[in-house]
Design goal:
about 270 residues, alpha/beta, 6 strands, elongated, binds 2-acetamido-2-deoxy-beta-D-glucopyranose
Amino acid sequence: MVIKCSMAPKLPISDVLIVRKFERNNSRGFIWLQNVSKQRPIEIGIFIAIFVLFLVVLILVLVLRHPPEGKNLSTARVDSHEQDKIKPLEYDSDITATSEIKNKLRMVTRLEWVAQPPSNITTPLVTPVPYVIIHHTATANCSSIAQCVLHVRLIQTFHIDSKGFFDIGYNFLVGGDGAAYEGRGWTIEGAHSFGYNARSIGIAFIGTFIRIKPPDIQILACKRLIEQGVQLGYIRKDYKLLGARQLAGTESPGAALLEDMKTWNNWAAEP
Ligand SMILES: *[C@@H]1O[C@H](CO)[C@@H](O)[C@H](O)[C@H]1NC(C)=O
Ligand SMILES: *[C@@H]1O[C@H](CO)[C@@H](O)[C@H](O)[C@H]1NC(C)=O
């Protein structure tokens, strides 16, 4: 019988046979599957369970090998990153070739933290200066070079782009990794303590130290840095050590750090 329908394509006989054969095979396969699933529901269940388990393990392995980036920056996990392995922190080893005095202070130079050049001509500092002024950066803290470098770079960008300074405001910074970071250095006037910039070296502790004081290695780095400044003739031997809040209405360097500073050499209650 011929069905007259405009939608039905006229297939040559051989094609019609292939289609019928396919349908027959297909329905046979389907019936086989139905029978098997009726006869062996447990085996099929186990097979599917193993397959799903395999997929879950595969996904877990992939996720653990590539954790999402940008999270937990302040946790120890970051310490395993390669950047940190380039320069392992060994406080008892020799200092870098750029330092002039062997007092075991690790100095991270501007070149090393990839500083931008100053945006305008900065003013030379008349040394030796009579004051050392301590700040905190009021940011998160850091415990590895990679983390601290990130903070120092962000602070420089903030000081130049948002505050309109010509460079990072501090002469130096110290990190929770126990290293000192070169800001404007010993010979350039900073932008950190209004009225005192031309007569002081400004050192910032990376972190916020209102309730908790910095780790010992960070405090030690600061003390060694000051010592180095005195030995190199950039800081007067009878310098006065001050916290930024003693000179201006600011929280810096944080109550906990200020309290600790009272036990350091040359602490001055009054400017
Ligand atoms: C550079 O500093 C000088 C003097 O402080 C100022 O007059 C000039 O506008 C500054 N230039 C830029 C590009 O900020
Ligand atoms: C950073 O701060 C957290 C809490 O705010 C503290 O637990 C941790 O010890 C600090 N790490 C360093 C290196 O200062």
